[in-house]
Amino acid sequence: MKKAIVLGATGATGQVIITELLAKDIQVVAFARTETKLKELMKKHQYDQRLSYKVGDIFDYQQIVAAAEGAEILFLCSGVAYQEMEEKLLLFGESAMKAADSLGAKIVVVDGIYVYGYQIAKGNESHPKHPHTKKGKLRVDYEKLIFSNKWQNAKALIVRLPDYYGATSQGSYMQPTLEGMANKKVSIFFGNLKTPREYVYLPDAGKMIVNIAEKDDAYGENWNIPGAGLISGKEIIEIAREVTSNRKMVIPLTKTTVRFMGLFSSFMREVVEIMYLTKEGFVLSGEKYENRIGPIPATPYRQGIEETLRVLMNRKIDKK
User: Fold this and answer.
1) Does domain 3-170+199-227+282-298 have CATH number 3.65.10.10?
2) Beta-ladder partners of 157
3) Burial of 247 (0-12, 13-18, 19+ CB in 10 A)
4) Which DSSP category does 66 fall into?
5) How far apart are CA 33 and CA 54, in angstroms?
6) SS3 content of the chain, % helix, strand, coil (to 5)
7) Which of 157, 60, 178 is nearest to 109 (CA)?
8) Is the pTM of this model over 0.90?
9) CA 179, CA 156: separation in Å to the nearest integer?
10) What is the DSSP letter of 214?
11) Please, what's the b/e burial string for 174-185 (b: 16 or more CB within 10 A of its CB; e: otherwise)?
């Protein structure tokens, strides 16, 4: 791979994928709809000559095609708000796939684990897809679209992440906890504090996603992007308190609490149905990655959380 385009470049996964591509000396086009954020991204990378940007609308496949000239791989990192998922998810998936097909390019689609529904203790890529939520069912339709045989020239793969965290995170469930702790405020935590859950550190995810994308025989398949095992909310908060010295309250949000908050917030109304993910310590199996790609990058939680908090605290200082 000599050149790639990252769709949704200013988002959580888009940013870490760009960092990893540049580390491998690959030319990158950052594609997003907001020029201000794209310029901030360029500044972050010290205006690296291997990185350029294009402002565009992901729902217009011709704009993607024009921006992706010469790119061998498209990384589809764009997402839609929960409130807009039914309306927009398949539309932007169709646009990205149409662009890849027109270009005769490979495409790496970043997605989550809603397709699995209620889960067992540990799941590999062949775990049954029996979603019980509307978001999960929609994601199954999304997968069918990506792997549809109507795409004659595009080669696609899907990478599936659990909840994630890191300095570039913007909408994950651990994010408000870490941001509150870094800003010396009362924080919230989605779910109870005792259940161990899996999270992937975004820089690790970026490495794994790019490593998979470079393998020609990886396409046409689903791939797990596992985290560093399980950790409870209580443990996360203990680490955060050590780093930030913030002793203020952290409020756990149960399904009942989130449902009540949904009376006033359209986002929270949509969160209710996926609160089941906070009840079980489901872990994505990384066996396939280990067997076909290599060792899994797995930054220990203590190190990853500390690194994230340091960035968040420095960001607060910079704004003063």
Assistant:
1) no
2) 108
3) exposed
4) H
5) 8
6) 45, 20, 35
7) 157
8) yes
9) 35
10) T
11) bbbbbbbbbbee
CA 111 to CA 65: how far, in whole Å? 22
Return all residues near 263 (Cβ < 8 A) that are at least 6 apart.
269
What is d(CA 144, CA 93) in angstroms, rounded to the nearest whole number? 11
Q: Which SS3 state, helix, strand or coil, does residue 297 take?
A: coil
Burial (0-12, 13-18, 19+ Cβ within 10 Å), 218:
buried
Q: Residue 173: which pLDDT band, with cuts at 50, 70 and 90?
A: confident
> Which residues lie below 8 Å from residue 256, measured CB to CB, with a gap of 6+?
none
Kindly give, in sequence order, each residue whose CB lies less than 8 Å from that of residue 313, ignoring residues fewer than 6 positions away.
182, 244
- Domain boundaries in the chain? 3-170+199-227+282-298
Instruction: Quote the CA–CA distance of 277 and 297 in Å, as a whole number.
Output: 24
| Phi-psi sector, 151: left (phi>0), alpha (psi -120 to 50), beta | beta
User: d(Cα 273, Cα 277) in Å, to the nearest integer?
Assistant: 9
Task: List, for residues 62-93, the tens digit of each pLDDT value.
Answer: 999 999 999 999 999 988 777 788 888 999 99
User: How far is it, in rounded angstroms, from Cα 142 to Cα 109?
Assistant: 10
CA–CA dist 10, 31 (Å, integer): 8
pLDDT tens digits along 93-148: 999 999 999 999 999 999 988 888 776 556 788 877 888 788 889 999 999 999 99
